[in-house]
Design brief:
Length: 116
C-alpha cells in the first residue's frame, strides 16, 4: 500500500510540475522568451501573409510585441504585433492580433486575425 501511495504522489508531482511549465491545458500563457525566436518570426510572417490574402492588407515593418501559447491538440499561438500597411490610404502604425493553431506535425492554420 505504501508503494502505491508513493507512486501516486510522484505521479501527481510530475503532472503538477509539467502543468506549471507549459501553463496548463485550457488557458493562454505569456511566453516572452519566444519573442525573438525563429519560430515566432515565422509564425508572425505567416499571419501577415494570411492577412494580405484575406483582407488585401500588405503589412511591412512587423514587430512582434507579445506571444502567448495555449496547449490543445497542438498549440495555439496568440500573437500581438505592430506593422505598417504599405497599401491603402493610411500608412500609420497598426496593431494586430492573430491566433495560429499549430498541430504537433507542424501543420498550421490561421484561426483568427484582426488589425486596428
Amino acid at each position: 500500500m505504501l508503494k502505491i501511495t508513493a507512486v501516486l504522489l510522484a505521479t501527481l508531482l510530475i503532472v503538477a510540475a509539467q502543468s506549471s511549465i507549459i501553463g496548463g491545458v485550457g488557458g493562454y500563457t505569456d511566453r516572452p522568451e519566444l519573442l525573438e525566436s525563429s519560430e515566432a518570426n515565422a509564425l508572425v510572417r505567416y499571419a501577415a501573409e494570411q492577412i494580405a490574402m484575406k483582407d488585401n492588407r500588405i503589412l511591412d515593418q512587423i514587430k512582434l510585441t507579445r506571444i502567448q501559447t495555449q496547449v490543445v491538440a497542438g498549440i495555439n499561438y496568440k500573437l500581438d504585433f505592430t506593422a505598417r500597411p504599405i497599401n491603402g490610404i493610411s500608412a500609420k502604425l497598426t496593431t494586430c492580433q492573430a491566433i495560429i493553431y499549430v498541430r504537433f506535425d507542424s501543420t498550421r492554420k490561421l484561426l483568427s486575425a484582426q488589425c486596428e
